[in-house]
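Table 4 source record.
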Amino acid sequence: QRRVHGRYYMEQSRMSGMPMKSLEPESDEEDQEMDEMISSLKSHLKECQKLGKYVEAQMAQNRIAELKEKKSSKRMNKLQSDSEKETKLLSDRYNKELEGLEKKWEEEIETFENEWQEKEKTLQGRHENGLAQRRSEFDSKLPDKGHVSNDIVKLKSKEEALAKQGKFEDAHAVKMEILKKENEDNIKWQEERNLIVMKKLQAIINRQNNEREAFNISQRKLMTELERKRDVEIETHEKKYNNAKFNINNDNQKTIKIFEGKNKAKGIPVKAKKPGPIKKEGQRTCLLYTSDAADDTPCVDLGGRRIIKKKK
């Protein structure tokens, strides 16, 4: 009598001429192999039931349940893995689009700032040229020298009188005094002249300052609006991503719940596989029992597992 799963399946494979199959489904092909194995076991179970081989029938039934559970667990792992991959793909696409979006807005804002600076330089140059032109106009309308003061008129009369009298030394002294006085009056006039020009130019300077301030205010408003549009577009993009992520997760959860419900109705437990050790390429798992307890009938259950008896 065959009491161990491993021995039973090896014997069945040898007798039927079929090759040994891996019981760890890793591909669709192996799913089909498992279905064929389950179908073969069901036929064998019915045969054992008819012949009264209940131990072998129980073993076959247990093995069918194990295979169904493993197939169901594999499907559950596949659903969860696909869900994670889909979420990751969505996240990668979102991050890539967000990076492109931020780069686009960064370039657009940088372009706007450069244009702002160029416009400001142009305005500044226009103001400077206009101011220089107005200064030239004001200068041309004012005489280079001011009116001759009464003191200088009197000194000139005195100079002429002394020269007529032949007092040349005294006339020369008066002339030097006149030159000094004229120089002082000229300096004073230039100061007054500059004040007059600056007073007229100040009104123009004030208008130019107001124009520059208004220009900068308008540019700052445009910059604020540009930044607002950037924030709105990025926020909208983020909302779309969150909605898409929610819908994907929701749909995947529904699919998993439906799958669990169907398996529950069939009495098949579903357990998601925990990450195990990494297999080397070419390795395949085969669930064979090699315990030496398999030959000890009283100490082994129908699944080939050792029964540990407690000492009384």
